Amino acid sequence: MTGQPVIDEAAIDGLFDRNLLELEAEGTRALSPYIRDVARLQVRMYWRRLEQIARQVTDTEVRLQLPAQVSPSGRIFGIEGIVDIVREGDGRTTMYDVKTHDPQLVRENKSQYAEQLNVYAHIWQKLRGERLDATAVICTTLPPPVEAAATNRDDLALAAAFTSWDPVIPIDFDAQGVQKTVAAFGAVVDRIEDHDFTPPSLDDLRAMLPGTRARFGVYVCRNCDARYSCRSYQQYAASGSSRADSFVRTYSDLGDEAMLDDIAIAALEVEPPLDDIN
């Protein structure tokens, strides 16, 4: 750490505020105070947990591109991704892909994440001629015990939660799988261009996602802006209801109780004063 700048949580807060101002200046919608505090908490917790890796990062937001690929139907497309690179003193190089996903979900579905990282590794090694020794995913979702302890400022509970929190998940990469993954991307390109947007089945929405305690219809669909026009989601949200109230149940499904509480708190914090309303 010799020669490195001293970075404490006050400095992290300052960088967070500056970055937020830059994003808002670029036209991004301003965050409510509640959402801003949640985001600030997440940044603080990740600095505490991943300071060592953060200080080692030598190349941030590296843009990797694989252009001029051809889909099964002959369409030209490209693949692009952004990663962080750590080059250690002994020459070892690690590639990190940052995801907003739950760590357990990644651990239970490593093969899916390996497919994407295989392409990034191929670009880094073969097209850019750079050394690569390892790849890993960094998950940015805070585990509930960490978030609860930090929010309640319970230092003992937070220390205990930190011991079992590992957001860095090593992913083995295999150069042999690159072409298969690129072909799969091409097939998706063709489906998009052909307007083939067939949704998952109702059974898929009811299935539990590996590594989570949530169904596909909750974990995935509630984050999809197109869910209200999706026949499968309409059937899922209206399951068990009569025809009379199925419409109401479908379009009233805005999330679970915790999500609705968050929305309500955020709205109250940005509500104008009563005198201004009058």
Topology:
Blueprint (H helix, E strand, L loop, with lengths): L8 H17 L7 H24 E14 L5 E12 L5 E7 L3 H6 L1 H18 L6 E6 L4 H8 L3 H9 L4 E4 L6 H16 L8 H5 L9 H4 L11 H7 L5 H10 L4 H13 L4 H4 L1
Parallel strand pairs: 3-4
Antiparallel strand pairs: 1-2, 2-3, 4-5
Describe this structure in words.
The model has no long low-confidence stretch (mean pLDDT 83). The chain has a five-stranded mixed beta sheet with strand order 1-2-3-4-5. The relative contact order is 0.10. It starts with 8 loop residues before the first helix and ends with a helix. The chain contains 13 helices and five strands. Helices cover 51% and strands 15% of the residues. The chain folds into two domains: 56-196, no CATH class; 198-278, no CATH class. α1 crosses α2 (33-56), α4 (110-127) crosses α7 (178-193) and α10 (231-237) crosses α11 (243-252). The protein is of the alpha+beta class and 278 residues long.
